[in-house]
Amino acid sequence: MPRSAFPAPDDGADVAEAARRPRDTRRRVVLVGFQRQANLGLGYLASFLRHHGYTVDVLDCERPASEIVQAVRDADPVLVGLSLIFQFYVERFRAVIRALREGGVGCHVTLGGHFPSLSPEQVLALVPECDSVVRFEGELTLLELVDTLGTGGDWRAVRGLAYRMPHGTVRTATRPLLRDLDRLPYPDRDFSRDNSVLGRQAMPLLASRGCARDCAFCSIHVFYRSAPGRIVRTRRPAAVVREMRWLHAEHGVTIFLFQDDDFPLYGPVWRRWAMEFVDELHRAGLVGRVIWKISCRADAVDAELFSHLRAAGMYLVYMGLESGTDAGLATLHKRMSVEQNLRAVETLKQVGVLFQFGFM
Question: Across the chain, where does the E strand assignment appear?
Answer without folding.
Answer: 29-33, 56-60, 79-83, 108-112, 132-134, 161-165, 168-171, 196-197, 200-205, 208-209, 233-234, 253-258, 291-295, 314-322, 354-359
